[in-house]
Structures are given as structure tokens and as C-alpha cells.
Amino acid sequence: MSDTPEVAPPGVNINVPHSARIYDYWLGGKDNFAVDRAVGEAMIKAIPGMRYMAGENRKFVHRVARDLVKKEGVRQFLDVGTGIPTRPNLHEIAQRHAREARVVYVDNDPIVLVHARALMISTDEGRSEYISADLRDPESILADKVLNETLDFSEPIGLTLIAILMLIADEDDPWSTVDVLRDKMPSGSLLAITHPTADFAPDEVNEAVAAATGAGMTLVARTESQVRRFFGDWELLEPGLVPVSSWRPDEPVDNPKAAYYWSGVARKP
């Protein structure tokens, strides 16, 4: 183990774990610190398949970006809680199938901002932007100048909330937060969500949640019905609200419930 002191960008507290950096650690990235790795390992101890779960979550993002462009005709995306870049990024998948696709990424972690330029590499026809904002203040996201210059709110938008709503406690009413974003979306827009759950393996998940909360993080695993509430009256696309590995998989899945996430995509009437 190196004795070299860890150095962080301005605004990054290396003594407090952060979900984006823990996720980066699970995916084999290097943009994490000792405190993130300690919590990440504690959660792996609780859920040995945690790295597999993180990978399945990323695969879902890729399938959603592809299908929303190719099958639903979406040409613009708002990705809230984007996390540290892991290639291919959402805009790379979208622009692979429609070079004119536009994507706005949103996150509030300074270390994500450091990597924002990597996110902004776009096709000549399309556009990729990043704004620093917090999901808990959806009005500030929707009022952002860059967002409104990049996305056309008269055309359908793909709103993606991937493994982010778990960071808002029930008492802070994440459902109302999502309502604000959904209400702003034009007709024909689509909402994609993944959310960890204890429905499949309660003992493992509860132990992992305890490890995170013991380190000062907010982490909430929610039931199928609680996750379904986030979609409001929007119509779920086939196959509905399902384990993340079984949302339109590219290959047969032996055990869909091995990744403890609910997932779904719904369309605004």
C-alpha cells in the first residue's frame, strides 16, 4: 500500500465517501479515494455480487440509449446523476445510432466536473454538455441556461435517473422531486430509472445499506411499489418494471434477480 498522500481536486473532500466514486471503484476505475474504497469493500462484503450489479446497471444504460434512439426516435437526453465517466458514455451510444443526438449530463460531484471535458466530446452534428447541479433541487436543473440552449422542450426527451434516487431519503420526498422533472418533460418523453431493492435479497442489501449509512451516506433500497411510484401516470414500456438484467437483454439471463435493481422505462402520454 502506498504512503503517498492522496490529492483531490478543489472542492473534493477525500475524508467523506461519495457514491459516484464508490461506483467508479466497483467498475474498476481510478477516480476514488481510500474512504470510498473502504465503504465499497464493506458493501462488497455484504453483497459479493456488487461489481456484477454495477456492470449490469451500465449495460442497462447502453440498451436504453440504443432503444430510445432506434425504436422510439428520441434525439435528446437529460441524464441526472451521471457519475464519473465510464466509456462508452450515454451520448456515445446515442450518437452511434443518431449522430445529431444531444445529451445534457447533470451531477454535483466536483470530481465529475474535472472529467466533464471527456463527456463533451461529441459528433459534429450532435452536442454533449455538462452542468453542475443537484437532483434535490430540480428547479435549478430545469432553469439552467446550458440545458435550455441544448435541449428543445417542444420535442420528446429521454430523462435518465440511473441509480441516483437511492441517495434521497424518504423524508425528503424523492417522488415529488421526480414529479417536478416529469411535469416539465414534453409529451412523448421517456423516463428510465434503475433503483436498488431489498426485494430479492433482503439480508444482503440491508447489510450493505447499513455499511453505507454507518459511513455517513444516505442510501435507500426501495420496494417494487415504491419504485413504480416514480413513474407516476406514465405508461411503462415492455417488459415493464423488471430486474435490471431482464430489461430487453441482448443475451439470455440465467438469474435476472442476481442484480438487485428494479428498472423500467415509461412514456409520457
Describe what is shown at a glance.
Helices cover 38% and strands 15% of the residues. It has helices at residues 19-26, 34-46, 50-70, 90-97, 110-114, 116-119, 138-143, 145-150, 174-184, 202-214, 224-229; strands spanning 76-80, 102-107, 127-132, 158-162, 190-196, 235-236, 242-243, 261-267.
Q: Tell me the name of the CATH homologous superfamily.
A: Vaccinia Virus protein VP39
The topology string of helices and strands comes to: HHHEHEHHEHHEHEHHEEE
CATH topology: Rossmann fold
Instruction: Write down the Rg.
Output: 18 Å
Helix content: 25-40%
**Shape estimate:** globular
Q: What's the total number of strands?
A: 8
Biggest sheet statistics:
8 strands, mixed
How many DSSP H or I helices?
A: 11
> Could you give the distance between the termini?
55 Å
Q: Please identify the top-level CATH class.
A: Alpha Beta
- Structurally, the number of domains stands at 1
Q: List low-confidence stretches.
A: none
Mean pLDDT rating: 93
CATH structural architecture: 3-Layer(aba) Sandwich
* Global structural class: alpha/beta
What fraction of residues sit in β-strands? 5-15%
